[in-house]
Every structure is written in C-alpha cells, then in structure tokens.
Amino acid sequence: MHLVPPRREALVCLLVCLTASPLLVGRDTSAAGAAPPEPGGCGMWLPPVDGPVVRAFQAPAFAYGPGHRGVDFATAPGTPVRTSGDGVVVFAGSVAGSLHVVVAHDGNLRTTYAFLAGIGVRAGDRVARGQVVGTAGSTGPEHDIGGLHFGVRLGDRYVDPQRLFSACDLTQLVRLIPADEPPAEPWDARRVASGSLTSGGSGVASVAGDLAGALGDAAGVAVDAGRSGWDAMGGAAGSAAGGAGAVARVGARAGRGLVGVASTAVGHTPAGIVASVAADIAAGTADWLRHRRECSDGVAAANGTGGSGHLLMAVGGIDTAGAPEEPTFGLDTRALGYRDDEVRYFSYAPDGGAYRAPQTHGDLQRAGLGLAEQLKQAQREHPGREVDLIAHSQGGVVVDVFLQDYYDAADPAYPPIGTIVTLSSPHEGAPLATAAADWRASPVGRALVEAAEERLPVAPSSATSVRQLDEHSRFLRDLWDDRLPEHVDFTTIGASDDVIVPATQVDVPDATKVVVDVGGGPLDDHTNIPRDPGALRVVRAALEGHAPPCVGVAEGLRGIVVPTLITRVEHGLGELPVVSR
C-alpha cells in the first residue's frame, strides 16, 4: 500500500509527543559511567563485579513500559561474577542462547546475573555472599559483549540495584523505593479495559487530561531549556520545537479544559470518546518511540539465508487444520532459514496427530497442555536442541498458556526454548469476540449472531476458544495474573489494518512489539501476515538476535492511529442499543 508523506500537522503532533517522551518512558536519574558504590552501611550486599556502571537503572513509566530494569557493569570477559548475598539459585541456564542465573534471597528479594559466558551453579544450590556463580563475557539484546547485567526485584517491584549496596536490611531498601515507582504488577492490571466507548469516565479522562497538560508543559520546558538544539532530534527539529512548544502550550490549556468536560462525561459523549482515544494514542506513541530507539536500519530480508539454526514449532490459529508434518498455516519457513526437517506444526488433536478445524474451537488451556506435551516429544527426539516458537493468531495465546502454566526452564523434559514470535495474536483478547459476547447476552442480539454465523464461514461465537478470547473473560484475567517466565525472548508483531486482531491487542509484557503494514485489505492482513515480507523481516531479526527494523514516521503514525480506531469501532459494535452486557 502506498503511503503518502505525513502532513505538516502530523509532524508537529509527533514532535510534541517526542518532546514529552521523558514523561512517557521514565527518566534515568543515575549517571552512567559512575563507579559502583562501595559496600556501604552494614556491608550486607556486594556488587557482583568490581567494574564501573556503564548503564544505569531506568524505572519504566508504567509496569510494562520501556526502561532498563537493572544496571550494566563494564568488566573484562572471564571476570568471576559473585552473588550479592546469601540465597538459593532458582534458575541457572540458557534462554535464547544467553546464560542467566537468578538467586532468591530472604525477604522476597531476587537478584539476576544476565548474559554470562559461563555458569558455575545449578538450580537448587545454596550460595553464600560473594560466591562465584559464573563468569562475565557474553552478550544479549542491547548488551555488548564483556559486560554484566545485574537486576534486583523486591517482590513484584524492580528496584535500582545500586540502592541495594547501601541498605543494611530489606526494610531500609523498601524505604528507599520511590512511592511512585511502578510495581511489576500483573499484566491485566496495567490498564483498565481500554477501548470501550463508554470508558471515558473520570479515570480515563483524568489520565488523558494529565497527558494533554504534560505534553504542553514538557514541550515548553524542552524549548526553554534546549533552544540550542535537542540532542534526540537534531538542530533542525530543535528550531521546529519552538513553534511546537507554543502550539503545545495552547493545547495544554485546551486539554485541561477538556478534562473538566471529560471527567463528567458518561456514555457516548464526544468529550469522553476523544479523551479516551487520546490516552490510547499517547500510549501507542510511547511504544513507537521506544521502538525507534531500539531499531536497526540494517536488518536483512527473509531470503532463506541466516536464521537461528534451531528447530521450529509453528502454532496455527483458529480454523486451521492439518498434521504435524505438513503446514497448517501460511508461514514461509524456508524464507526464515529453516529446513523442512527442522519444522514441526502444533496439533490441536488430543493425540498430537492430524486435526480438523472444529478442534481449534476447544479449550485453550487444554491446547497449552498439548503444546507442552508436543515440545517434550521434540526433546525426546532431539535432546538438547533449542526450539523456536512462531505462532499465528490464536496460536499465540496457546503459547502464552504454555509459558504461564506449564513451562519450567529447569525441567529437563522440556527442550531449551529459543526465540518466540507471534503474528497478529490476541494476547489481550479480541474485540470482535467481546462484541459477540455482548450481542449474545440479549435475545435479539443472539438471534442476529446465530443467523449471521449460518451464512458466514466463521468460528461460532459460542465456541469455547472464542469465548475465552473475550477481553472480559476470566480465562484472560487468570492468564495474566503472573508475568511470563524470566529471560524469555519474545517478539510480537501486529498488522496496522488487521480487523480480526487489531494491533492494539498484540501486546505482551516485556516483549518487543512491532506493527507492520501488510499492504492487503483489512480482511486480508490477518491471513497474510505470516508470509508478508515486512513481517518476515522482523521475524528474521528476532531469530538472529538483532534489533527489529526501523519503522518510518508515516508507517509509525499509521500503526498507532488506525489500530486504535479499529478497536474503538469494534467495541462500539458491542454497545449498540440492541445489545446489553
């Protein structure tokens, strides 16, 4: 699809959003390059190595937002890495080709030693303060060779590891955590069911108003403090920021005025809708900004070269059919560098054999268990061989269930899990499934839905898997009660025009998210994304451990606004007067 250059107004809007990015993605309050503090206070905790900190802790603006949940030490390859305190090793092994050790300590505290060159302990080992757990010298995403990434979690909250070294006890560490630092809360708690046309009440309106005011204030501050040039944008953008700042100051006053209207708005009032949509677009802009900082312009196309060298378990979605040895959906595995004998397709059949489309309509919890059993079979057939997981549509939720409820990296029955990529998967539920559930809640709506299903080749809305993909389902709430396993290398890809699973719904905690323009019609994007060259380019980058390809301004804006509007329209279908929840 041809994209026209963005209008000047869109660029000004983007510039204002970029100016406010420190508010959206959090601030780095510690100076990189500073030497780690000496073991202070009671000397209870030790730095894992003696090198300087070259990348400081950066608290995310929200629980699963961008940030740096630890510190990076510069140290020579082969340097012994020591545990900071007494504890028990709860994980020691390889994930996606990188070695990690996690130690649990008293007081519900865990320390992580990541991207190691070697490991000297095993899960279950008791370790003493200062004991060597491995050696530094490996690399990983955003981490150069020769360094060490060190992270600290206190309960469900990431904390600045450098605070640990000056704390005499954990109660002191708790006092050192800023009150506004976001916890690592369950995914379902990250936001209120966003996207509802009737969600423009005081909560969403307050957030939208704060964002509007913050955008204007931040733009003004950036202009006042940085007229000589803004490092992130360059001199030309710095001069343009002056005009944007003036516009944004006016916009801030208007935005705060909107709060007064939106905070009292109910139902389908325009102010409530605008405020809620603005909040979602602002959140999408923050994701796009993060992607711009972590992308690469040199990503190779998926042309049959390269790849991970692993086995592949490909997981199809609803209404697929086939057998483990034959393609069940249109993923171009050869373009990704896999040989035919390295690919196996997940089966929804209880015995793991050939399956029919109606079997994809069953319980997704049971499907996750089936994936666990089929991966164990792969481990028996190819002991120790890493397995990548690439899933499409509903198949991505099957992968979620496997990771959340069945996978244990320390269980030798499972193969090492390499890279995980999902394509247009409704990790946050499908708005059309939500709308169908709303319609079925009334007699008139149910009759209309059933009449439509008799004439259309779609999965019935009464199917178990469709009901589980309702955004309000207990299944999804329970699924995201906990975070994904640590150190999982996860990339989630959405299509900007997908109406089956809008790109607003493909988010996964701590995963890399990319939205691509598949280029077909809205009804084709969902089906075509597994073989789309742009999407496959992102998949290849993930498999090879590279940053995803950069997304241009026009495509980035389109990937934010269009999916948000699609989601709003689909939620509106469930709020028509003919239906009621």
What would a concise description of this structure say?
The chain has helices at residues 8-19, 21-25, 161-164, 170-176, 202-225, 235-262, 270-293, 364-381, 394-406, 431-440, 443-455, 464-468, 474-479, 522-528, 533-543, 553-573; strands at 53-55, 71-74, 80-82, 87-95, 98-105, 109-119, 126-127, 132-136, 147-154, 157-159, 311-315, 343-345, 387-392, 417-423, 489-495, 512-516. The chain has 16 helices and 16 strands. Strands 1, 2, 3, 4, 5, 6, 7, 8, 9 and 10 form a 10-stranded antiparallel β-sheet that branches. Strands 12-11-13-14-15-16 form a 6-stranded parallel β-sheet, with helices on both faces.
Which key features would you list for this structure?
single chain, alpha/beta, 6-stranded parallel sheet, 16 helices
Care to describe what's here?
There is one protein chain. The protein is α/β, with parallel strands linked by helices and 581 residues long. It contains 16 helices and 16 strands. Strand 5 (98-105) and strand 6 (109-119) form a beta hairpin. Helix 1 crosses helix 6 (235-262) and helix 7 runs antiparallel to helix 16. The radius of gyration is 24 Å and the shape is globular. Residues 1-41 and 174-268 have low confidence and may be disordered.
Rg, rounded, reads 24 Å
- Principal-axes geometry comes out as globular
Please give the count of helices: 16
In round numbers, the mean pLDDT is 74
Low-confidence stretches: 1-41, 174-268
SS elements, strand count: 16
Distance between the terminal alpha carbons, to the nearest Å? 38 Å
Largest sheet, in brief, is: 10 strands, antiparallel
User: Which structural class should the secondary elements be placed in?
Assistant: alpha/beta
- Beta-strand portion reads 15-25%
Percent range for helical residues?
A: 25-40%
